[in-house]
User: Which sequence fits this backbone?
């Protein structure tokens, strides 16, 4: 099977296995927009396997429900990186996969998980977002481009073929989908800061909430 056929097979598997974007139509109601999530939801907000940007032991945690095919996620990515840099060792970002854009999102997430297994998660993430207009344009998804883009950032495409379909990759996708329903996420990006939903949504609001939590952690 050539690479294009392989990627299309992955996409087809994802659609068959998870029901595509329509899976989210009947999702549950959102969490409270004014309070920290209930204790029973805390486990669904952060999983130990989730990718982390920034120091693992930072006192302030931003949870980002993130879709690699989402334009707004792409626009917020440099803001998130700037917040991490601004607060040095005090802030980390936990990424939760949120495949709201169908097969393109799902294949991209599988590529990111393969990149994580190979120790090149962050450079591949940067490359997928940089080239998002090529593979996730409004005119149509082109998931067959993703392996080549990731390879340009250091992914071994041969090793990735097995990693894309590895049970642990599928397990991450399944658990993240289940957690989306539990938490009630409706759009991407959606942010929580130390368990508090960002409301109202916006760059200034995110910066203020993070700064307040950093100040509280240092007091």
Assistant:
């Amino acid at each position: 099977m050539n690479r294009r056929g392989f990627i299309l097979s992955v996409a087809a598997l994802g659609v068959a296995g998870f029901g595509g974007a329509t899976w989210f139509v009947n999702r549950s109601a959102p969490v409270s927009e004014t309070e920290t999530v209930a204790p029973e939801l805390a486990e669904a907000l952060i999983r130990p396997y989730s990718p982390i940007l920034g120091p693992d032991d930072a006192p302030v945690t931003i949870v980002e429900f993130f879709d690699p095919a989402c334009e707004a996620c792409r626009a917020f990515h440099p803001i998130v990186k700037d917040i991490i840099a601004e607060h040095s060792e005090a802030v980390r970002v936990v990424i939760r996969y949120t495949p709201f854009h169908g097969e393109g999102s799902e294949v991209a997430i599988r590529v990111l998980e393969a990149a994580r297994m190979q120790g090149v998660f962050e450079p591949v993430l940067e490359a997928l977002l940089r080239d998002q207009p090529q593979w996730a344009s409004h005119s149509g998804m082109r998931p067959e481009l993703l392996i080549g883009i990731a390879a340009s950032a250091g992914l071994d495409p041969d090793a990735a073929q097995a990693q894309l379909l590895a049970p642990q990759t599928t397990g991450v996708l399944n658990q993240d989908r289940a957690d989306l329903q539990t938490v009630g996420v409706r759009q991407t990006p959606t942010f929580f800061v130390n368990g508090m939903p960002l409301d109202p949504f916006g760059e200034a609001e995110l910066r203020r909430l993070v700064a307040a939590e950093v100040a509280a952690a240092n007091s």
User: Anything to note?
Assistant: Residues 40 and 141 are 37 Å apart (CA to CA). Strands lie at 52-53, 60-66, 91-97, 136-137, 140-141, 190-193, 196-197. Residues 6-33 have pLDDT under 50 and may be disordered.
